[in-house]
Each structure stands twice: as structure tokens, then as C-alpha cells.
Write a structure and sequence with these properties.
Layout: E1 8-12, H1 16-28, E2 32-36, H2 39-48, E3 53-57, H3 65-74, E4 83-87, H4 92-100, E5 105-108, H5 113-125
Parallel strand pairs: 1-2, 1-3, 3-4, 4-5
Length: 127
């Protein structure tokens, strides 16, 4: 939770327009959002101040979303952070792999921003 008592969402995507859209929608829905442009930055931000939830693109430079999820799950400080993978990789094997590495949800691009917000809300309600 932020100082204002709002949930903090980590959004990691190397595509500026997608990241901006996600940040805008989540901010408008009452969440505090921190942004990362690649997986390495996402891991650094999560380690410094664990967010309440992470929305991760799968295909990012340096460290991909699968590996970010795997590393979050392996660290006791971040292991319980709900993770939504957001990606254009939509084959069944990609979705299965996302769940295998520990993702809580998987949303395919292009996505409906209202659906993303609803999934964030649902995952946070389970915490």
C-alpha cells in the first residue's frame, strides 16, 4: 500500500504506448502505479518496495516476464505478489508456461482496459 493507502501496482512493458495505457487506466481506477521499461528494472523496483500486484509484459529486454515472475516467486519478500502476464504471445503453450512459472492471470494483447482493471481488482480482493 502507498502512503495514501492505495494499492501499488508495478507495470512493466517495453512498449511505451502499452505501458502508458495500462498506467493511465490503473491510475484512473485509484491505484498508485510504478513503471518499469524492462524486466531488470521491474525486479529492482519490486525488491526495493514490493508492490501489491505486478502487470508484466512477457517479451521484454534484459529479463522477460516469465523470468521476472519466476524470480519474484523465488524470493520470500516478493513471492506472494499477484502477477498478471500481459502479452501478445497467446498460444496455449505460452499461456501454460505463464502459469507454470507462477503467474496468477494471463491477459492477451490486444486487451480490453476494463477487463484488465477488473482482473486487478479481483486479484487484490483475494489478498
Amino acid at each position: 500500500m502507498s502512503d495514501a493507502g492505495r494499492p501499488v501496482i508495478l507495470v512493466a512493458d517495453d512498449e511505451d504506448d502499452v505501458r502508458d495505457l495500462v498506467v493511465y487506466r490503473l491510475s484512473r481506477s485509484g491505484y498508485d502505479v510504478v513503471e518499469a521499461r524492462d524486466g531488470e528494472e521491474a525486479l529492482r523496483l519490486a525488491a526495493g518496495a514490493p508492490p501489491d500486484l505486478a502487470v508484466l509484459d512477457v517479451m521484454m529486454p534484459k529479463v522477460d516476464g516469465y523470468e521476472v515472475t519466476r524470480r519474484l516467486r523465488a524470493d520470500a519478500a516478493t513471492s506472494r505478489i499477484p502477477v498478471i502476464l500481459l502479452t501478445s504471445r497467446s498460444q496455449e503453450s505460452d499461456v501454460s508456461h505463464g502459469f507454470d512459472v507462477g503467474a496468477d492471470d494471463y491477459l492477451k494483447k490486444p486487451f480490453n482496459p476494463d477487463e484488465l482493471t477488473a482482473r486487478v481488482r479481483a486479484l487484490l480482493a483475494r489478498r
